[in-house]
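The protein record filed below.
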Amino acid sequence: MIVYLITGIGGTGKSAVAHALIEQGFYAKDTDTIPGLARWEDVHTHKPVELEDISFVDYTKVSWNWNKKSLRENLHTNNTLFLCGSASNQSDFYNLFTKVFVLDVTPENQAHRLAIRRSKYGKSPAMITRLIQDQAELLQSSLAQGAIKIDNNSVLNKTIDEILSHVNND
């Protein structure tokens, strides 16, 4: 079983990478589209919570967590899988992946992508600032855990080529 995680905070291009991989004939999943995989949880009780407004999320109160059982079920495949997504607890699962790729974008590109996205998530100016900070922290912590940095500031095909250059030997 060969499974790669492609991660980054909102606005780094995970969904676009997933769609591009699918268009090129690879087996890829956007974690936001997998029913039962992730949910908002109270950070203290870990019980599910509903958010009325996702334009600004207070991560001191809630977290976006993957369900361990659902994640494991989605990783079992005979195909090489590219799982594209992020969660507050994702580093707990890095050992399940053949390699972890973390998308890197400039703060300006991330802010622009968040501003033009269809989703309401991350639309408030305060949330955009928060997500840019979170991206810098995720990049640093993921690299410290062995992730591979992928520049996603340019054309999408270049990003895909860079990812594939790291998987051809697996």
About this structure: The longest strand covers residues 99-104.
